[in-house]
Amino acid sequence: MFDINKILRTNIKNLTPYSSARDEFQGEASVFLDANENAFGSPLVQAYNRYPDPMQYQVKMRLSQIKGVPARNIFLGNGSDEAIDILFRSFCNPGVDNVIIVPPTYGMYEVSANINDVQIKRVLLTQDYQLNLEGIAEAIDENTKLIFICSPNNPTGNSINRDDIETLLANFSGIVVVDEAYINYSRQKTFIQELTEYANLVVLQTLSKAWGLAGLRVGMAFASEEIIEVMNKVKPPYNINEASQTLALQALDNIDQVNVWIKETLQQRDKLVLSLKHMDFVQDIYPSDANFILVKTTNAKSIYEYLVQHGIIVRDRSKVELCEGCLRITIGTPQENEELINTLQQFK
């Protein structure tokens, strides 16, 4: 059974978080003389002289309506990377604890572990890019605090078998983090709906991909109230700036536009796959539930360098385990995809 107190770091359990006056008072106020701000305004058209809402209440309430989950189960971070880092700092004792990742996968799990001096245990995915449950079970020990699963997975693009993830959730006494950065493009339903079933589940999502707000850096974590309380305790007091909160709120009122872009992206993905299949140097194109495809080629490095020379940037993943010879190609606009295809057709 999952018990947060058994995996929470003692110093975090005893931590008194930073508290501003705006955390402490209730109700409305018209005069703010508490935070040593410049009361006269900003040298901009819009005033940014006041600190932002430290708990992003309005954004969380709008997300609550969209996602169907209470605001108290939502954490907002400066990108999903902040949520990942906070999970390490909250639950993993440096030099003692370990986490499990399942390569090939998103690189920031390992980077964040290294920054926090936390041991990484690597259990490779199977040849068809699914979980090796037996290998994960063997890797777990009494100091294993987190398991990271990216689904749809980056860089492979496929969704991870849902039953396998639920097996981990039901049998692991630590936290299972399901990173759903690309869930808007997937046929698989989100794990947010399972929060009431699994106290040890953390779901990561982002406004950087389908929502088109990568420049604002707004990531989301969905979890039990007790896990969210820990994350809010550890985060910086004003981690999401006012501009990002304001613009995110505006964007969240444009779901119809986002859905149109998702549909077009999937159509363009299918079209790009068909075009690439006819090229001699393409050996395989793996099934994708994301806004990118993983393409196995005869010479990834040469193709990558050729595209760079023509001003087209893709991602060379050929040195990643189980992705040998592969390029990861993001789905662009129809014009960008056409330019890619036309350029590749000239490759020799």
Automatic annotation (TrEMBL):
Record keywords: Amino-acid biosynthesis, Aminotransferase, Histidine biosynthesis, Pyridoxal phosphate, Transferase
Family annotation (InterPro entries): Aminotrans_II_pyridoxalP_BS, Aminotransferase_I/II_large, HisP_aminotrans, PyrdxlP-dep_Trfase, PyrdxlP-dep_Trfase_major, PyrdxlP-dep_Trfase_small
GO molecular-function terms, A-Z: histidinol-phosphate transaminase activity
Domain Aminotransferase class I/classII large intervals: 46-343
Cofactor(s) recorded in Swiss-Prot or TrEMBL: pyridoxal 5'-phosphate
Pfam family, one: Aminotran_1_2
PTM annotation (N6-(pyridoxal phosphate)lysine): residues: 209
CDD domains: AAT_like
Complex formation: Homodimer.
Protein name as catalogued: Histidinol-phosphate aminotransferase
Native species: Mucilaginibacter litoreus
